[in-house]
Design goal:
Number of strands: 14
Catalytic activity: [protein]-peptidylproline (omega=180) = [protein]-peptidylproline (omega=0)
Strand content: 25-35%
Number of domains: 2
Helix content: 25-40%
Protein name: peptidylprolyl isomerase
EC number: 5.2.1.8
Order of helices and strands: HEEEEHEHEHEHEEEEHEHEE
Keywords: Isomerase, Rotamase
GO molecular function: peptidyl-prolyl cis-trans isomerase activity
CATH architecture of the largest domain: Roll
Length: 331
């Protein structure tokens, strides 16, 4: 019985030790949360990694877990002890860890000031999961290695995209059920509710509309809310902590046909003074790429509340099928 207790205690201490923050060269701090026991990353390996990037205020600056867009990159030669490439050599495939790169050390060795967004920070912090490491085989030519890695990641991307695409109908259904929206659907697949039809005359391709809009993702955040990714409503932006200094708020002018297809189609369903709520599937929105920089994941529907304030007639024009920017308004 005592032997069992001793073994259990030793295992517990070993686990705790693995998760303690350690110091590395150049002011590096790191904690290994899980080690899969695989060969460590070395220069020349090609790595697939998910990560969360934060500053000293614990603000999330990037999150590939949420955006579903892991980084794929070759491991480079370190520039100095404790840099981003040096820390990678501590991990192998399947490992998860948190590490803090010292920004003062980085500035000293690069002879460059800290990036503006980190000027008051000491560290840039990453929590990572090493998803895959492609290693060069003994005697393998560089061209053969690169081709093998390229083929693997192309197949991996395709499989991942197909999985996300297959999951989209369930995402849309879950959003509609959660919001209790009884929508109609156009032939293209656009879901909509006309809250106010507006004037009999509707905008056409080539016209310019003056609109108020709010766009939201259709995946709930940790706070249980659907996050705004763009809006013309300054008051709403401030209320939901999405205010962007320098961004023009208030009614916006937009050429009909100058944005993603679903947005263009929605505008043509109502007249001046009209209001409409739409859920745009990814094939009418941001597709397989999404817009991760504003929280729109690949193969994800998005929701808009739109109101047309005015219609300025113009010459007929062909529709633009691709999005102009992450926001719906073409400046």
């Amino acid at each position: 019985m005592k032997k069992g207790i001793i073994i259990l205690a030793a295992a517990t201490l070993g686990l705790a030790a693995c998760k303690q923050e350690k110091k590395g060269a150049g002011g590096l701090l790191y904690t290994i949360h899980h080690s899969a026991g695989n060969e460590k990353i070395k220069e020349g390996d090609i790595v697939k990694m998910n990560f969360i990037q934060k500053n000293d205020k614990d603000s999330v600056l990037a999150n590939t877990f949420e955006s579903e867009t892991p980084a794929v990159f070759p491991a480079q030669k370190k520039m100095y002890a404790g840099d981003m490439n040096d820390v990678l050599t501590l991990f192998g495939e399947g490992d998860s860890a948190t590490f803090k790169v010292n920004l003062d050390t980085m500035a000293f060795h690069s002879k460059q000031p800290k990036p503006e967004q980190f000027k008051n920070d000491k560290y840039i912090t990453f929590t990572v999961k090493v998803e895959k490491v492609i290693k060069k085989k003994a005697g393998e030519a560089d061209s053969t290695f690169n081709k093998r890695a390229q083929e693997f990641f192309q197949a991996d991307y395709k499989a991942s995209s197909e999985k996300k695409k297959a999951a989209e109908p369930a995402k849309l259904k879950a959003y509609l059920e959660d919001t209790k929206l009884a929508t109609k659907t156009t032939a293209s697949g656009l879901h909509y509710i006309i809250e106010k039809p507006g004037s009999a005359e509707k905008p056409a391709l080539g016209d310019t509309v003056l609109i108020e809009y709010t766009g939201r993702v259709t995946k709930k955040g940790k706070d249980g809310k659907y996050k705004i990714f763009d809006t013309s409503d300054e008051k709403l932006a401030k209320a939901e902590n999405e205010f962007k200094p320098g961004k023009p708020y208030g009614p916006q002018k937009m050429p009909v046909g100058g944005t993603i297809p679903g947005f263009t189609e929605a505008l043509q369903l109502i007249g001046k003074g009209g209001k409409i709520k739409v859920i745009i599937p990814s094939n009418l929105g941001y597709g397989e790429q999404g817009a991760p920089q504003v929280g729109i994941m690949p193969f994800s529907p998005i929701a808009f509340d739109l109101e047309i304030k005015d219609i300025i007639k113009g010459k007929p024009a062909a529709a633009t099928s691709a999005p102009v920017t992450a926001a719906p308004v073409k400046k």
